[in-house]
């Protein structure tokens, strides 16, 4: 249950999102998730829960090399030196020797520093401190600029994606460039997506829950969803999406939900506090 990144490293096909959770909530959620079989854990400096995630990883009933810990650089640490510092602070809070995937959380084009920031991530990868490097909430034009100026492609772009905002064009572009699409708010952030008749009908037909139908849609599109749940039963069901499949007709039915627009920030204009 992994997808191969362009740098040759395997990434789990589904993970646990941890926003919004505080340290203690994250510690409990990650501990439980790992016991259920989750191996990919997604956090960020700006979530304020890296210590909790790190504590759970330290005590996890899984070897460190079997876990895939992702964290992200916050906007306050854009720039080469600041990014190296930001990484070190995250690594210390997590209590880890290395992270599996390090992402620039937002491009913040108004700041004009994402290329320098990317150079720092390239350095961290060369040092083995970040095993894989990528971006989050970047547009193709922004990624092209990274590559023109540094020659290094991100292997992942983590973006908002759910049936209401399916990122068709971006996914096609990612596929051309061997970039894995990681989906944040894969369930539509708990909004009415899971009550849509298209989804509830498919859930009934497959004997699954609406969330499982939506997560399976992500997986079949080749995206890596990171559903957040702090509830142990929902966490369990969200992970059980590898023992059934949706037909092309099912996928097409879900595709009719497109058009709802974004829930979160726009890469070109988002200003992170
Ligand atoms: P909870 O933490 O109480 O389970 P997203 O990952 O798309 O942002 O969605 C997260 C939201 O969806 C949270 O409010 C979470 O609440 C809820 N959620 C997570 N898993 C499920 C599920 N299987 N069924 C219904 N709601 C879910």
Automatic annotation (TrEMBL):
Signal peptide bounds: none
Keyword Methyltransferase in annotation: no
Xref: CDD domains: AKR_AKR5D1_E1 (cd19132)
Source organism superkingdom: Bacteria
Domain NADP-dependent oxidoreductase: 14-257
Recorded coiled-coil stretches: none
Pfam family, one: Aldo_ket_red
InterPro entries: AKR, Aldo/ket_reductase_CS, NAD(P)_OxRdtase_dom_sf, NADP_OxRdtase_dom
This protein's UniProt keywords: NADP, Oxidoreductase
Alphabetized SUPFAM superfamilies for the sequence: NAD(P)-linked oxidoreductase
Record family assignment: Belongs to the aldo/keto reductase family.
Protein name (Swiss-Prot/TrEMBL): Aldo/keto reductase
């Amino acid at each position: 249950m992994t997808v191969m990144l362009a740098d040759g490293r395997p990434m789990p096909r589904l993970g646990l999102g941890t926003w919004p959770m505080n340290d203690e909530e994250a510690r409990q959620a990650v501990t439980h998730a790992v016991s259920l079989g989750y191996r990919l854990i997604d956090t960020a400096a700006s979530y304020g829960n890296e210590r909790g995630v790190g504590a759970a990883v330290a005590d996890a009933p899984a070897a460190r090399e079997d876990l895939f810990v992702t964290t992200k650089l916050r906007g306050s640490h854009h720039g080469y030196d600041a990014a190296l510092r930001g990484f070190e602070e995250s690594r210390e809070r997590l209590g880890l020797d290395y992270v599996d995937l390090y992402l620039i959380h937002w491009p913040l084009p108004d700041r004009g520093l994402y290329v320098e920031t990317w150079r720092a991530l390239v350095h961290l990868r060369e040092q083995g401190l970040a095993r894989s490097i990528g971006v989050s909430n970047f547009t193709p034009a922004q990624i092209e600029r990274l590559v023109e100026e540094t020659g290094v492609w991100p292997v992942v772009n983590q973006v908002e994606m759910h049936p209401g905002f399916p990122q068709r064009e971006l996914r096609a572009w990612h596929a051309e460039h061997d970039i894995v699409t990681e989906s944040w708010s894969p369930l539509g952030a708990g909004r009415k997506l899971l009550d849509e008749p298209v989804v509830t009908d498919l859930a009934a037909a497959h004997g699954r829950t609406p969330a499982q139908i939506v997560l399976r849609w992500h997986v079949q599109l080749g995206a890596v969803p990171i559903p957040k749940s702090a509830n142990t039963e929902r966490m369990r069901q969200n992970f059980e999406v590898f023992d059934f499949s949706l037909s092309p007709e099912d996928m097409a039915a879900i595709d009719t939900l497109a058009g709802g627009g974004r829930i979160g920030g726009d890469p070109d204009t988002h200003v992170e506090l």
